[in-house]
Structures are given as structure tokens and as C-alpha cells.
Write a structure and sequence with these properties.
heterodimer, A: alpha/beta, B: alpha/beta, 22 strands, about 20% strand, globular
């Protein structure tokens, strides 16, 4: 049976198991559930949830609209602040944002389920094909947006509904950026990223050119010549590679690529996975890769992080999710060497680590973990190709509070720029705010 | 252990919880289930005169309003008196009473406002060995159009007249059920007393339309596109009922007249409140219709536990204790000064106290202190209106703290006085009775 087959193989589970494993993590509320959940909102003054939201959605108002039978109005309240409210409702780490701030946490350690209520309202509007915005006549001005991810599309939408002609350049085939290629499958079912992109683009005035990569197919100078303003939302295109011996062997895979392939696979059973998998990293990408490796049928998945639990970038909720799916999370372990047998990965040696005067040091002890596949999730990097003289510091494009880069007429936002939180929601906020700055500058 | 046995105008029941005359007491099946569940007494659904019974509508009879999570707060009905033949009801009442000797069984009656009608039905009811009768002068819908129910209850002279007939033609205790659909409930209460009633019970239901169907443009409950006013009851009407009970309890003309308290009794606490305002027992309907008969267990055990805690051995130990404290506004002590206080450990920082005070009251609660979200009462602005407490979602988070004599009221800058002083002697009152110099 495929389940226990050594090495890296697809088809480890039955079709029914794949379907169950990759079903939606939190299904949408039905009308009754939404009413009950909305009843719990206190309609706080100067609500902490709203302050905690990077896009400042008026949470008490939209929840009150749901509770009074006006889910469509609730969706407009959400979209006014965050045109990607649908995806954010699915992928936001609400436990560290709005729901953490909810006063119901203080009251009884059970916040109002803001994320799921937002999902309820935005789904209603999108299913109804309800468009709240109309594009006015073109103002004749043109903006080039590089990257069709959350920041790029949020900026494009805000610009389009203010009369600008927008051209979005993206090197991938589909729009959506990480929403399409980076989010765990069970958080973004039913082709939601494409549906949302279509919903956003349907307002008009936005051309998306796919297969177009900055630095390869065009230059920043080209864009500046063609457009009145440029918004860079290129994301983090590169990944950090493991720098230990043996990483060239078959079975060492970049976790970002692993997640993207899984998202794009029509049948999850076609995606190969090791019987025993080691994931290197402690962030959201590492968790998403580890959990999905398990869901694909890996027998053992061990996530190894070189620092302690308190240093992990993955939220506690995500860590618990991983544990509940059977992922073993080990801390204070740094990769030392990859072992192989016949050109295929057979295991890893990792060094125990600890902090000495605040510095991470190896203790001198090591451990060997047998595995057939290693997924590396040790950070993504800015691809600086094509950025010309745009100032970059510590791997991010430097921007001011309005999203302006060091180069006049060029704005930036999303994961590629300073100040974000590497979250869809903060990328949307940065895109929206940069658009407002561009509108002001070109007025 | 508290003794909650009840003796109401000589009618004994193991506890003060009776089911009011209503759908739950329509027939032997329901009444026996109620007794088995522990109810102390039952007022059988109102009997009409002999002959073809009334008919009910065949569409919705009830409408409701709800609070959070669809908790039923108010119920409205357009059901009429019993639609079963009189003889069936009488036979069942007799059989049930024989089987449940220790429980109270009261017959509610509504017949036309004619002496012969009352004279005819009373012996038939007496024959069932029911413990007493309740005169339904309250139903505001349907029957009132035929000159019965509230149509009688709204005319004190009729009330007195019918009570007198009943006292004349039966040995059974007479309880007169009053309608709240009047300007001053003391007038029908006085009339009932003048007619010789043994007790009054109140309130019956309040005229109401629970809502409007925005699609069909029809009031709800809606029958074939039309609606009519119905009788409103449930938790939402309790404050109205408490006030009317208190008005009768403290009226010199009806003082001491036994009262069976009705209106939104849902928990033991509601019952205790009615008793403290002078009611001898309570009647319950909506709570049973919402949750079933089992709720009486919560009422019995809750009342007993509270009485034990307070050291009340019997119901008489606390009955009417709040009546002397019901007064007119003009006698309230204007020298009593209180200030709201927010317990910062209990505060969940929802900010509702602030915005209620800021937008609609006295701007006496902060929302930000030193750049931090913080809600605190500004005593120099606080008039102790209580709104903050009323809107706070956390019980006991905000409390009213009485200022002691000698302390300064920061709002007025005056020293708090230990003396009692009310409006009747206040200098701003043009009618003030100035003490003779």
C-alpha cells in the first residue's frame, strides 16, 4: 500500500482521504450561525478590533449589519476598507489581530468570531455578484503596477475606481500572487483567489499582463516612460537556501514551491510527498508545508526550528493546528548535514542549539533524523533585479509612510517593502494607501 | 429549610407558583403534566357560557419579539377563551382536582355581563370542587369586541357589579383579574374591592402589535394578510406589572387586598420581587410556554435557596417588604448623592459606558487617559444617572457608590448632608411648603 512506501511518492491516500484532508478548515457560517455569532458583538466604542485591523475595517458596524439582516451592507463596509476582505477573512491570523483585541477575550476568553463573520458577509456579496463600486470616466492618467498580488490588486482597484488607467504586470500565469500560489490549500478552497481577483478586476480600467517580469521583460525606466506613476508590489521572489552539505540531493525541496505546486494541482493525490518529512523553519510557510505534507499522507512530519517556541513566527494557533494534524514540532535544532543514499535523501543531522549571551550557539550535541524529503522554509528574499536605483535596506524596498520609494514617481508596498507584516491584510493596506498617495500626487 | 407553602385567600398550594389561565392550562392533559412537574396551582383556561364554544383562527395565534440569540422577550397572542365544550372542561376539572388534592385549581370564567349568565355558570363550577374562581376581565382581544374581558375590566362600575353577583351566588373565593389597558389600575382594583372580591390578580395582557411583515405589509401575527392587536406578555411586561401591583399594594383604599402577581415571571427572582411588592403568590405563563413546565424546579429551588440565605422561614416573612419603599417622586431624598464607580479589574474596555454618557448624557466617563484606552468616571460631571450601569455588559463592573455625609460632591462643590430633604421643601419648587418662621 502506498501509504508506507519509502521515498517520495504520490497517491499515498485514497481519493476520499485527500478530499477530506483538503476540505475547508472553517466552512462558511450558515445564516443561523451568523446571527448567533453576530449577537455576541458588543458594538464597542472606538472598537479595539478595528484598531487591530491593518486595514481598519469597521468591525462593529459590519457585524451589526449582519445581525440586522443586511449582510450585503456589511460586505460594503468591509470592502470600503479592504477590497480583499474575502481572502483576509480566510487567511488573516485573526487570533493575533482583531480577535485578539476583542473585548470578549477579556470577558470570557472567547472572542467574537470576526473572521468567520467577515467571510459570511463577503461570500454573500461575491456570490450575488454585487458590485459596490463603479469606475468613473478615465482621467487619462496611467499607473503601472508590478505584481498582481494583494498589494498590487488593492492598489489597482483603488486607482481604477478613481478614474486611473491601470496596467498590472505579473510574471505568473494567474493573478493573485501569494493568494493564488502561497496560501495553504485548505484555507483557500473553491478557487477563491481567482474568483476574488476576477471580482476586483471586473470594476474595469485594469489591464493585467501576465508573463511579464521586471528586470527580465522590462525595466523600471520603461515603466516610468510609459506611466505617470509606478507601484512596485513584487513580493519576495527569492528564497533562502540551506547552506549545509548535501542539499543538492533528490528530496530537498523549497517549501514555497511545494505549497505552490500543491495549490495548482488539480488532484492532490498527484502531488508526491515523502514517507518521512523534515521541515526546516519556524514561520507560517514552514507550518503550511508541514501540515500539508501530513495531509498528503506523510507518515512522519518533523518541523525543526533552530530557536525556541517563543521565537517562532508561526502563530500559536498555527502551531496548535500543526500539532493537531500530527506534525511534531522540535525546537533548538539547526541543520548540519543532509545524508543520502543512492542520490536520494535518507536523513539529516541537526545540531542542538541554545542561547549564549543572546547569541545562538550550537551545544556540540547532534541528532540524526531519518527522512526521505526535506522541505526548507527558512525565509524569502527580495529579488532586486530591475529595481535600479530604488533604495533597498535589509532586503526590503525603503518606503515612507505614504508608500513612496527613494525614486520620484515610484511607490512600493506589500511584502517587498519596509513596514509590512508579511500578511495579506497588511499588503492590502499598503496597496490601498499607496494608491491614495498616488491619487493625491497626480491630482 | 425555607417553607414555601402558600395560602392565598384560603387556597392552599405547596408553593406560590401557579400557572395562569392560558393555553398551558387548556385541558386535563396539560394540567396534569404541570402538577407532575411541580406547579403549586393552576388557573384553568377561561370557561365561557354553555352552548357552542368559541372558535379560534386557523393561522398564527402568537407573535414575539426577541433579544440576543433569539431569546424570547415578549409574546403576543390572539387566542380566545377555551374552544372546548363547557361540560368537557368541567368533567376534566373535577377529575383532576380529585386526583391532585394538594394542588390549587382555580376556574377562570368569562361570560356575558348579565346577572343570569353568571348565576347559571357558578353552580356548575362549584360542582367541580375547584378551589376558587378568577374573573377574566382582562383579555384585550376578540372577547372584548363582544362586550366581555377587557371591555368589562375597563369600566369600574361593571367590575364592581359582576364581582358582587359572584360573591352573591358562590361560596368560592373570588379573584378578579385586572386588565392593564387602563389609565389608572387602582380604579378597577377599588371597584373589585367594593364589590367584595377576595383578591385581585394582575396584569392580564397588554394591547399590542408585535411587528409588521415588511414583505406583505401586514401586522404580525398575520392571518391571510391581515393582523389584529393581541395580548402582550412575557419578560418585557414585568416592569409594567410590578408597577401596577405596587400601585394597588400601596393605595390606601386597597391596602391589604390580596394580590396574585402576573406578568413576565420567568425566574425565582421575578417571583420574589412580586412577593416583596405585596403579591401573595404569582402566576406564570410565557416562561412555561417558552421552556416547558420543568422551569418550576428552578423557581422552587431558587426561591428556597434565597430565603434560606436571607433567613426568611416563610413567604410571609418577606411578603410586602418593599411596599413601604414605593413612594412618589416628590418624596425622594434630594440630599442623597451617589457616583458611578468602574471596577478597573472587571472592565473589559468595550467603551459603551463612555459613548452612552458622552453622546447622550453627562460627559462624565473618559475614554482615553494618557494615551491609553481607559474608562473612568469624572465625579465632577457624574449625576449618578445609572445609564453606564444599564449599558455595561459585565455585571457589577460599574456600581453606584453613595457619598457619605461630610464628603464633597465634586459636581456641585457642596458638602453632602446627612439630612433628608425632598422636592416639597426645595427652594426651586414654587409650591414648596416653607416652614413657618
Amino acid at each position: 500500500m502506498g501509504r508506507l512506501e519509502p521515498g517520495i511518492h504520490s497517491g499515498r491516500l485514497s481519493p476520499a482521504e485527500y478530499e477530506k484532508n483538503f476540505a475547508e478548515l472553517h466552512p462558511v457560517f450558515n445564516d443561523h450561525e451568523a446571527l448567533v455569532a453576530s449577537d455576541r458583538c458588543y458594538f464597542c466604542y472606538d472598537a479595539p478590533c478595528m484598531t487591530a485591523c491593518p486595514t481598519s475595517i469597521d468591525v462593529p458596524l459590519f457585524i451589526r449589519q449582519i445581525s440586522t439582516g443586511n449582510a450585503i451592507g456589511a460586505a460594503k463596509t468591509i470592502f470600503d476598507q479592504n477590497i480583499m476582505g474575502g481572502m483576509c477573512a480566510r487567511v488573516c491570523p485573526t487570533e493575533t489581530l482583531c480577535e485578539q483585541a476583542c473585548v470578549r477575550n477579556t470577558a470570557e476568553e472567547k472572542p467574537v468570531e470576526i473572521g468567520r463573520l467577515q467571510r459570511f458577509a463577503t461570500d454573500k456579496a461575491m456570490h450575488a455578484g454585487k458590485q459596490f463600486y463603479t469606475r468613473p470616466a478615465s482621467n487619462g492618467k496611467s499607473v503601472g503596477v508590478v505584481g498582481a498580488g494583494p498589494a498590487g490588486l488593492a492598489a489597482a482597484h483603488r486607482l481604477a475606481i478613481n478614474g486611473f488607467n491601470v496596467t498590472v504586470y505579473d510574471h505568473r500565469e494567474k493573478a493573485g500572487g501569494l493568494n493564488e500560489y502561497g496560501i495553504a490549500t485548505y484555507k483557500a478552497t473553491d478557487d477563491i483567489a481567482q474568483k476574488e481577483a476576477d471580482y476586483i478586476l471586473s470594476v474595469g480600467g485594469i489591464d493585467v499582463l501576465d508573463g511579464e517580469m521586471l528586470g527580465r521583460d522590462f525595466t523600471l525606466a520603461d515603466l516610468k516612460a510609459k506611466h505617470d506613476a509606478v507601484f512596485l508590489a513584487v513580493g519576495l521572489g527569492g528564497v533562502n537556501a540551506l547552506t549545509v552539505e548535501g542539499t543538492h540531493e533528490y528530496g530537498v525541496v523549497d517549501a514555497v514551491e511545494f505549497i505552490a505546486n500543491l495549490r495548482q494541482a488539480d488532484a492532490k493525490g498527484d502531488v508526491p510527498v515523502g514517507r518521512r518529512v523534515v521541515v526546516i523553519g519556524g514561520g507560517m510557510t514552514a507550518v503550511d508545508a508541514a501540515v500539508q505534507a501530513k495531509l498528503l499522507g506523510a507518515e512522519e512530519v518533523t518541523m525543526c526550528y533552530r530557536r525556541g517556541q517563543e521565537h517562532m513566527n508561526a502563530s500559536l494557533y498555527e502551531q496548535e493546528l500543526a500539532a493537531s494534524k500530527g506534525v511534531l514540532i522540535r525546537h533548538w535544532l539547526a541543520p548540519k548535514a543532509v545524508h543520502s543514499h543512492g542520490g536520494h535523501v535518507s536523513g539529516m543531522t541537526l545540531a542542538y542549539t541554545h542561547l549564549e549571551n543572546g547569541l545562538l550557539k550550537e551545544t556540540g550535541h547532534t541528532v540524526d533524523i531519518a527522512c526521505d524529503q526535506i522541505l526548507t522554509a527558512i525565509g524569502q528574499t527580495l529579488d532586486v533585479a530591475g529595481l535600479d536605483t530604488v533604495k533597498v535596506e535589509k532586503g526590503k524596498i525603503v518606503i515612507d509612510e505614504e508608500g513612496r520609494t527613494s525614486v520620484a514617481g515610484v511607490w512600493a508596498g506589500g511584502d517587498c517593502a519596509t513596514g509590512g507584516e508579511d500578511l495579506t491584510v497588511s499588503a492590502v493596506a499598503m496597496g490601498r494607501d499607496a494608491a491614495m498617495s498616488i491619487i493625491k500626487a497626480l491630482a | 429549610m425555607a417553607d414555601i407553602r402558600n395560602n392565598f385567600v384560603g387556597i392552599k398550594s405547596p408553593n406560590p407558583f401557579w400557572l395562569a389561565s392560558a393555553p398551558p392550562t387548556d385541558k386535563a392533559y396539560n394540567v396534569e403534566r404541570a402538577y407532575a412537574a411541580g406547579w403549586g396551582g393552576v388557573v384553568w383556561k377561561t370557561l365561557g357560557e354553555e352552548g357552542p364554544p368559541v372558535v379560534n383562527v386557523n393561522g398564527p395565534r402568537y407573535g414575539a419579539i426577541w433579544g440576543a440569540d433569539r431569546r424570547l422577550l415578549g409574546l403576543n397572542n390572539i387566542e380566545l377563551i377555551t374552544d372546548r365544550p363547557l361540560q368537557i372542561n368541567l368533567q376534566e376539572m373535577k377529575a383532576v382536582k380529585k386526583k391532585w388534592r394538594d394542588r390549587a385549581l382555580i376556574a377562570s370564567i368569562m361570560v356575558p355581563c348579565e346577572e343570569d349568565a353568571w348565576k347559571a355558570i357558578l353552580p356548575l363550577v362549584e360542582e367541580t370542587e375547584a378551589d376558587g374562581i378568577e374573573l377574566n376581565f382582562g383579555c384585550p382581544h376578540g372577547m372584548s369586541e363582544r362586550g366581555m374581558g377587557a371591555a368589562v375590566g375597563q369600566v369600574p362600575e361593571y367590575v364592581e357589579m359582576v364581582v358582587r353577583w359572584c360573591k352573591q351566588y358562590t361560596r368560592m373565593p373570588v379573584i378578579t383579574k385586572l386588565t392593564p389597558n387602563v389609565t389608572d389600575v387602582r380604579r378597577p382594583a377599588r371597584a373589585a374591592k367594593n364589590g367584595g372580591t377576595d383578591a385581585v390578580s394582575l396584569i392580564n395582557t397588554i394591547n399590542s402589535i408585535t411587528g409588521v411583515d415588511l414583505d406583505t405589509c401586514s401586522p404580525t401575527p398575520s392571518i391571510d394578510g391581515k393582523g389584529t392587536h393581541g395580548g402582550y406578555c412575557g419578560p418585557a411586561v414585568k416592569p409594567i406589572a410590578l408597577n401596577m401591583v405596587a400601585e394597588i399594594a400601596r393605595d390606601p383604599e386597597t391596602y391589604g387586598l390580596p394580590i396574585s402577581g402576573i406578568g413576565g415571571v420567568t425566574t425565582w427572582r421575578d417571583a420574589a420581587e412580586f412577593l416583596m411588592l405585596g403579591a401573595g403568590n404569582v402566576q406564570v405563563c410565557t416562561a412555561a410556554m417558552t421552556y416547558g413546565f420543568k422551569i418550576v424546579e428552578e423557581m422552587i429551588t431558587g426561591l428556597e435557596a434565597w430565603m434560606d440565605e436571607k433567613g426568611y422561614a416563610t413567604l410571609d416573612d418577606f411578603r410586602g417588604k418593599a411596599v413601604p419603599n414605593v413612594t412618589d417622586w416628590q418624596y425622594l431624598n434630594l440630599n442623597y448623592i451617589a457616583k458611578a464607580h468602574i471596577d478597573q479589574d472587571a472592565c473589559i474596555k468595550c467603551g459603551r459606558c463612555h459613548i452612552a454618557c458622552e453622546d447622550t448624557s453627562h460627559q462624565a466617563i473618559t475614554n482615553m487617559v494618557n494615551g491609553v484606552r481607559h474608562f473612568e468616571v469624572l465625579e465632577e460631571e457624574c449625576v449618578a444617572c445609572n445609564l453606564c450601569i444599564d449599558v455595561c455588559p459585565v455585571e457589577n463592573c460599574i456600581t453606584m457608590v453613595e457619598k457619605q455625609p461630610g464628603e464633597i460632591d465634586k459636581r456641585t462643590g457642596k458638602v453632602v448632608s446627612a439630612d433628608y430633604a425632598n422636592w416639597t421643601t426645595h427652594p426651586n419648587n414654587p409650591m414648596a411648603k416653607v416652614a413657618a418662621e
